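User:
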Amino acid sequence: MKNKNCSHLTRRQFIKSGLTGLAIGSGLAISGCDPLDIISPPTTPTKTPDDIPALIIGSGFGGAVTALRLGEAGIPTMVLEQGRRWDTGVAPFSRSIPPDHRSTWLRNKTALPFGPSFPIGKYTGVLDRVDYPNMHVYRGTAVGGGSIVYGGISVQPPENLFYKIFPAGISYQELQPYYDRVRHMLNITTVPADVYSSHPYRYARVFAKHAANADLEVVDVEQATDWDIIRSEIDGTTAPSAILGEFFYGNNSLCKNTLDQNYLPMAEATGFVSIHPLHRVIDVMEENSGKYAVTVEQIDETGEVIARKKITTTYLFFAAGCVGTTELLVKARSLGSLPNLNDEVGQGFGPNGNILVTCTVNESTGNPQGYPVIKGIRNYENAETISRIESLFLPTGFDHTCLFYLLLALDTERGHFFYDSSTHRAELIWPAGGNDTAARAAVDFAERMNAANDGYLGPPEDFPIPLQGILRDSTYHPLGGMVMDKACDLYGRVHGYPRMYVMDGALLPGSCATANPSWTIAAFAERNIEKILTDDLTMNREKREIGR
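Assistant: Predicted structure:
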């Protein structure tokens, strides 16, 4: 007899998520599933209940972790996600070159921070860009959130830098077991030697050589990646996707260990969690009963509203990312639907010191250039500020002589959000010179590399793709807005509102201390939901709530 808890998973999801064993800490045994029977795509619930004990807004790193742990605790939980759910069948995602309508969220043109903009049809694609004065913020819009469009890069902030950014009340050592838990769930590892030496990663080897020439130490970048799939692309047994540099719009070989292949299907397999794609939350308020009410628009795949509903909940978890979470709460405070929110709501935005750098070098960097990012540098002696640099791939479709970097500077510049009733959205105040320190750090790094390797800042004059030497007004790592120990306590509890929590990047204080933030967001979510389950959602208390 088949285990019904597993019947909604695709075979790929089943094998990748490790559901043949036990979910971590759950006691949920589902080893009776036959992976050969798991061939249907996930079903999307067509109805949402009017009331649910626990409601999660967003399905990225914070939301996915929270969903699994609530499901394991036996708490009926609903996840609302404004993006669509993508089947993990054959080539579900847009190619990078040329992209199609699946690439971009409800725009008529693509919106990458570099390269040409391609015309597309308006559709609920996976990558969104929110444009503010002086800053463009990128985010994932799909079941799985940012994991669908991120680079798989999983980096812990160094302990000494952690304490420069995060509140003193949080111990790095206390957080370590939760990093370890996420490592296990996402299978975070470093590049194998055979992959590193293969043709698609020539650019990484050139980077390492040039860094050594500049007396800079090269380090491996940890990755939530299935290296066997990368190998199968290299040897031709799997259609190329990663080795062509495809990741901006999802990866079609499924080598990225995205949340829709682990945390989320495991949450659904508990039988207590339902995920509702194409459900966009537009308002939040507290009712006289003490429950929270959210107004939700259900949209179709062109963005048209097809239904509007109200859902009430006892425990409300925000996991819509820095922009989504902060916008809802800034709006609720401004309009008076959550008047007890404090003045810290909307404060503390930072782009994690993100700067993109292009340099011309004196040798070929190869074609194709493959995902994932596998090498980096800790630039502690930078003249401007401590930085980390990652060697990005630049998949142009032709051989060239460029190296492409992402610099993450230790930067303390912060912006803030406010609700603008004329635009009906949260607007970001970010100063025109807000990234000056990070930009100068990028120039300092580039000059050191170029001086040692006869290179120069910027692409070659005849380069056919528009690129800037220093790109300073975009971020893939928006953080802050509901900062821990300010708008929330150290566990994400929102000040002024019991049973309301922030579980995503809005909680981080504008920076992740030179690290890509996904691993840290997930580790904090693991830590915080464990505390919340113990102190706020004990089973006896939950039973009383459900029985009301």
